[in-house]
Q: What sequence folds into this?
């Protein structure tokens, strides 16, 4: 499952960091959220994704790590925001800041609103502000309602995406 694989990757990662005496207080982790893969026929609820993500982190990420900054992983802007919000609402020990490092999930609607046109700059800025506010609230578990964006609920998944 996605949770098992995430846990294995995190365990190997922190073993290697320990072997090399890395000062964890000076690090940020930039992982995936635990969600079913794009081709997985079974989909899970955002609440299940949040619990699986927090469980994987609790089992494998040392408390000394300064923060966890999630990638959006091809989720739509709304999905990434809802999942981040619910991750922060999972009860229990979470000794790290749990926030976002979204690229596509912060830019898609902004770029769609802008369209490279000078006349659209204000609209694009408003779209960015809306997304930043929503994700800022989600980073502290206080996002409420739905997120209507220029990209709609479109998936931002790109097959074979490489960073």
A:
């Amino acid at each position: 499952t996605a949770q098992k694989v995430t846990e294995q990757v995190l365990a190997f990662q922190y073993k290697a960091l320990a072997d090399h005496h890395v000062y964890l207080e000076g690090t940020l982790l930039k992982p995936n959220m635990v969600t079913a893969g794009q081709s997985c026929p079974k989909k899970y609820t955002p609440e299940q994704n949040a619990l699986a993500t927090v469980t994987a982190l609790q089992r494998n990420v040392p408390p000394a790590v300064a923060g966890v900054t999630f990638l959006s992983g091809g989720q739509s802007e709304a999905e990434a925001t809802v999942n981040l919000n619910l991750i922060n609402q999972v009860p229990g020990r979470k000794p790290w800041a749990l926030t976002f490092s979204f690229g596509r999930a912060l830019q898609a609607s902004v770029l769609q609103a802008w369209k490279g046109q000078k006349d659209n700059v204000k609209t694009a800025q408003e779209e960015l502000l809306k997304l930043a506010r929503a994700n800022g609230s989600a980073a502290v578990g206080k996002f409420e309602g739905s997120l209507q964006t220029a990209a709609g609920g479109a998936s931002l998944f790109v097959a074979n995406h490489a960073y």
